[in-house]
Write a structure and sequence with these properties.
Layout lengths: L1 E5 L4 H12 L3 E6 L7 H10 L4 H4 L6 E3 L3 E8 L5 H10 L4 E4 L6 H6 L1 H21 L4 E7 L23 H20 L3 E6 L2 E2 L8 H10 L4 E4 L5 E2 L2 E2 H13 L12 E6 L5 E2 H12 L5 E4 L14 H7 L7 H15 L1
Parallel strand pairs: 1-2, 1-5, 2-4, 5-6, 6-7, 7-12, 8-11, 9-14
Antiparallel strand pairs: 3-4, 10-13
Keywords: NAD
Pfam families: Epimerase (PF01370)
Protein name: NAD-dependent epimerase
């Protein structure tokens, strides 16, 4: 298939592009390469895909990979640029669009909400319109476990009410789900929203807990342990995320067990909780260094625990994430040591 992946220089986007290319698809990766975190890491990910930094820095021009020929291409473009996006869809026909392009980070959304509205709402609307007029067969997009807000019922089910977000980031992700539902209903556009649960792994973002913890521990600095360590997360390893995504992308909606359901939401998580203290223990074990823990109160916009019910994902796509936290953390530590 010919597949558009937005956010291709991002953590999840890079890994997905790599898997789709290996599976024989032609991939056009799109990213605006903003400076929310070190752009050097984003360019380094693209270089793993065969796109040089000099190629990737060219605005609104498609570059082909040196590793994969015409199978992997890249365009530097912002989703909020409606004209540029229209031109991209006029010049290319996409079977599937996978939207991972978004302003990430719960805490940053408290400081700069406008960035989230432009990227996650305006940009997503632009993409929906292009999919609608471009006869795209399936739009797969990233939602987030943050939409569950202060939900106390665990594990979190896609059937739960999620109309009380506690961060602007979560609100924009819920808006994506509502917008997708409307387009599926009005224009018969098949859409699949994926609520990711605390994704981690090699090439991860520098603002995420695992990266911050490993970086601080190796430098002998204390780590910030929020809510005094009384937190739990459904940590999901990157390979499990992209494995589920590629299966959904490669399976026509009509051939999955969801059949005629054009609009669908799935949780992608490891289907178990890990205490934050146990997570830190796994990091210490992988590094062979004991952490200096600075216990702090919970931050605004944060939640105490997450836990994914993945029964619908298993039922419709016969897919179950299952990477143990010890293995995933070790893989990240090995990458971190190699990269730095």
């Amino acid at each position: 298939m010919n597949i558009l992946v937005t956010g291709a220089a991002g953590f999840i986007g890079y890994h997905l592009c790599e898997v789709l290319v290996k599976h024989g698809h032609t991939v056009v990766g799109l990213d605006n390469i903003n400076d929310y975190y070190d752009v050097g890491l984003k360019y380094a990910r693209l270089e793993q895909l065969g796109i040089s930094r000099s190629q990737a820095e060219i605005e609104a021009k498609i570059s082909s990979s040196t590793l994969h020929g015409d199978q992997m291409k890249f365009i530097k473009l912002d989703l909020a640029d409606r004209h540029g996006l229209d031109e991209l869809f006029k010049e290319n026909t996409f079977d599937v669009v996978c939207n991972l392009g978004a302003q990430a980070g719960v805490r940053y959304s408290l400081e700069n909400p406008d960035a989230y509205i432009q990227s996650n709402v305006v940009g997503f609307n632009n993409l929906l319109e292009c999919c609608r007029h471009g006869n795209v067969k399936h739009l797969v997009y990233a939602s987030s476990s943050s939409v569950y807000g202060l939900n106390k019922k665990v594990p979190f089910s896609v059937e739960d009410t999620v109309d009380r977000p506690i961060s602007v980031y979560a609100a924009t992700k819920k808006s994506n789900e509502l917008m997708a539902h409307t387009y599926s209903h009005l224009y018969q556009l098949p859409t699949t929203g994926l609520r990711f649960f605390t994704v981690y792994g090699p090439w991860g973002r520098p603002d995420m807990a695992l990266f911050l913890f490993v970086d601080a521990i190796k430098k002998g600095k204390p780590i910030k342990v929020f809510n005094y360590g009384n937190m739990a997360r459904d940590f999901t390893y990157m390979d499990d995320i992209v494995g589920g995504m590629s299966k959904i992308i490669e399976t026509p909606v009509s051939e999955s067990k969801r059949k005629d359901e054009l609009y669908k939401i799935y949780n992608i998580g490891n289907n178990k909780q890990v205490k934050l203290t146990d997570f830190i223990d796994a990091i210490e074990s992988s590094l062979g260094i004991e952490a200096k823990r600075d216990l702090m109160p919970i931050q605004p916009g944060d939640v105490e625990s997450t836990w994914a019910d993945v029964d619908e994902l298993i039922r419709d796509y016969d897919y179950t994430p299952d990477t143990p936290i010890e293995k995933g953390v070790q893989e990240f530590v090995d990458w971190y040591n190699s990269y730095f």
